[in-house]
Amino acid sequence: MSAHPWMPQSPCGPSCVTGGQFRRVSIVRVALRVLSALAVLLSGLLVVAAKPVLRANTRLVVRRWFASLVRAFGVRIEVHGEPKFQATPGRGVLVVSNHVSWLDSLVLNAVQPMAMVAKLDIKGWPLLGGLISAAGSVFIDRERLSRLPRTVSELSEALRAGLAIGANPEGTTWCGISSGRFRPALLQSALDAGVPVRPVAIRYRVVDGTTARPAAFVGTEDLVTAMRRALRLRGLVVEVHVLPEIAPGRADNRRDLAGLAEAEVAGALGTTVASHTVPVGNGLDFQRA
C-alpha cells in the first residue's frame, strides 16, 4: 500500500477477475479479434497523420475510429443518459468516471473524443500508447507528486479553452463489484476553470446481465494478461451511463465536488464505495458456448 494518499490501491486482485462462470469464444475467434484490432490500430496512424486535413471532421473520424477498435475487440457499447459528455459545444467539461479496465479510455472516446488524464505507464504501451498520446492526453507520473499542481493548472487552462477532459479520480482500477473513493485533487481544475463536472459510470457485463469481472485490469497483472482474458469473453457489453452535469457553484471545494461525483457514479452502478469482499476462487471458470 502506498504511503501517499494520491497513490491508492484497491483490494481487487486475481481472485476478483478469475471467479465465476463466463462463456468464451474459440481460439480462432480470439485470433480474428486480435487481427481486426491490429488492423484498426494501424489505420489509426493514418488518422493521426490526416488530422490537419480533416479539420472540422476530425472529432467524427476519431470517434468512429475508437468505436471500430472497441468493436474489433468484441465489445458492444451501450450509452445511457445524455448522448455526449459536453452539453454545450465549446464549453469545457471535466468528465470523471470509475476505473475498471484497459478498455475504459477507448470506450469513452468512442462516445466523444476527448483528452484523457492517464498514468505515465500508458504512454509506453505498444502502438496504443502512441495513439493515446496523439489524442492530446495528459500523463501523470504518480511517483513525482510535486508535478501535480502544475498538471492541475494545465488542465484548468485546457478546460477554460473549451476542451473536454476525462479523468479517473479513483486513482486505480476496481473489478466492478464495488468502487473506490474519488480523490479530489484533479477536480480542483474544474473549480479553477469554472466549468461543470460530468460524472460517468462504466459497467462491464455479459448478455445475461452478470458483471463481467474478467474484463477488469486490476492489481499488478500485465496488460497482455488482462487483454487476453477480456478477448476470450463472449457477449461482452460495456454500459456507459452519462449522468447529469454538476454545475459550477454546487460545491464549495474540491472535496465536496469529488463527493458529489462519487455518489452519482456509485448510485448509477449500485455499488458500495470503498467496501469490498474479494471473491473466493483462483481459476477462470469459463463455459464454452
From TrEMBL:
Q: Which InterPro entries match?
A: Plipid/glycerol_acylTrfase
Q: Does the keyword Ribonucleoprotein apply?
A: no
Domain of life, source organism:
Bacteria
Pfam families given in the database record:
Acyltransferase
TM annotation in the entry = 30-50
SUPFAM superfamilies, sorted? Glycerol-3-phosphate (1)-acyltransferase (SSF69593)
| Example GO biological process | phosphatidic acid biosynthetic process
Q: Pathway it acts in?
A: Lipid metabolism
Q: Which UniProt keywords apply?
A: Acyltransferase, Lipid biosynthesis, Lipid metabolism, Membrane, Transferase, Transmembrane, Transmembrane helix
Q: Which residue numbers delimit the Phospholipid/glycerol acyltransferase domain? A: 93-205
One MF annotation (Gene Ontology) recorded for this entry: 1-acylglycerol-3-phosphate O-acyltransferase activity
- Name of the protein in its database record: 1-acyl-sn-glycerol-3-phosphate acyltransferase
> Which species does the entry assign this protein to?
Kutzneria kofuensis
